[in-house]
Design brief:
Largest sheet: 7 strands, mixed
Strand order of the largest sheet: 1-9-8-5-4-2-3
Structural class: alpha/beta
Helix content: 25-40%
Number of helices: 14
Bound molecules: pyridoxal-5'-phosphate
Distance between the termini: 24 Å
Shape: globular
Order of helices and strands: HHEHEHEHEHEEEEEHHHHEEHHHEH
Strand content: 5-15%
Number of strands: 12
């Protein structure tokens, strides 16, 4: 969780520019098409489709809206159950709950913090409509096993890949495993445009309806391609397409992705190598990246042994002008989660991790000297010394 942080010398997040953002935004304005699906949107679509090898990618106004579209495209009906980790952002569930779906909370693995695939079958019922793995911190969930189980029961898989753009599982890009996947370009993500997202469509049967749902339930996309001579209302839908001004900003980021990835890899690796020994001595868990996962270097977290030690370290960093933040509160214990039957002890790993997890400052422009300062403050902290 993060917000504006003017009091901090080293904030938690700063959206980074790669160079061409303002030029492309000015160009979009000059071209005169600033509604959705202009030339920069098309460029983003092509770049993402070609890089990921996805059937179709459609920019959306947020990852939340991409998930909303996924629930619409799957025709989720009242009473349908959706399995997703309790340790996630509300949008992962909300999209399906908005259609009348029932949230089913699954606990996470203690190593990668992704849904624990060993628990999956025990939660499947005849009403299960979708499984939504979240690739936490851009480290892949165990997709082979998840797809195998989902396939056996005929259940759709939608990836919430808000953190994992261009990360891979066994060499294949995240977001290309489920029939649908949702990406985020929110200002806290690796590639940003302020607010934005994308729906990745891997099932060709869903492409035409996705275009309709995204365009207020009309066949306007076909009209613009000259495939129909007028457009009209053909299905339910809403307005999920971002302005081409935002797409122009996003394109500048996407085309410099290698530069962003290199900066983030350097930051992540520095934290890991400089905190490893301290973590071992203090019973602190650092991120685990299985050998078959190429991560996105989205964040660096510590899992402290207790809520008290987590809060104390946040305070200590704050005293030194450094903002660190916790992350998700268990959704099965939220007001909505409890109404859906969630109870204490239901997802024990989620509950422990949520208490202990702390995210360190992480943004493309974080300098080596700032990072050294953060590391120094953390290393002065001893868990036993509370
Ligand atoms: C796992 C996950 N899914 C979805 C979202 C929502 O993303 P957006 O802000 O683009 O709607 C977030 C936001 O951080 C997230 O962490």
């Amino acid at each position: 969780m993060s917000g504006p942080s003017p009091r901090y010398r080293i904030p938690f997040n700063k959206p980074g520019l790669t160079g061409n953002e303002l030029r492309y935004v000015a160009d979009a304005l000059t071209l005169g098409h600033i509604a959705g699906d202009g030339s920069y949107t098309r460029r983003c679509h092509t770049l993402l489709e070609q890089t990921l090898g996805a059937t179709r990618v459609l920019l959306t106004t947020s990852c939340t809206h991409a998930l909303d579209m996924a629930a619409l495209l799957l025709n989720v009906q009242p009473g349908d159950e959706v399995i997703a980790p309790s340790f996630t952002f509300v949008s992962t569930f909300n999209a399906f709950v908005l259609r009348g779906g029932r949230p089913v909370f699954i606990d996470i693995r203690p190593d990668t913090l992704n849904l624990d695939e060993a628990l999956l079958e025990s939660l499947i019922t005849p009403r299960t409509r979708a499984i939504v793995p979240v690739h936490y911190a851009g480290v892949a969930a165990e997709m082979d096993r998840i797809l195998e189980i989902a396939g056996r029961y005929g259940i759709a898989v939608v990836e919430d890949n808000a953190h994992g753009l261009f990360a891979r599982y066994k060499q294949k890009y995240l977001g290309t495993f489920g029939c649908l996947a949702a990406q985020s370009f929110h200002e806290t993500k690796n590639v940003v445009c302020g607010e934005g997202g994308a729906l990745v469509i891997n099932d060709p049967n869903l492409v035409e309806r996705a275009e309709i749902v995204r365009e207020k339930g009309t066949n306007r996309s076909r009209f613009f391609r000259g495939q129909v001579d007028k457009y009209s209302w053909v299905d339910i839908g809403s307005s999920y397409l971002p302005s081409d001004i935002l797409a122009a900003f996003l394109y500048a980021q996407l085309e410099k992705y290698d530069q962003i990835a290199a900066a983030r890899q350097r930051i992540w690796t520095y934290y890991y190598t400089h905190l490893d020994q301290w973590a071992r001595a203090n019973g602190v868990q650092l991120p685990h990246v299985p050998a078959h996962c190429q991560q996105s270097y989205h964040m660096f977290y510590l899992i402290m042994p207790s809520l008290e030690s987590r809060q104390a370290l946040i305070e200590k960093l704050k005293e030194n002008g450094i903002l660190s933040v916790f992350h998700y509160l268990p959704l099965h214990l939220s007001a909505m989660g409890v109404r859906a039957g969630g109870r204490q002890g239901q997802c024990p790993v989620t509950e422990r991790v949520s208490d202990g997890l702390l995210r360190l400052p992480f943004y493309n422009d974080l300098s080596l000297s700032e990072q050294a300062e953060v590391v120094e403050v953390v290393r002065q902290f001893t868990v036993g010394g509370l």
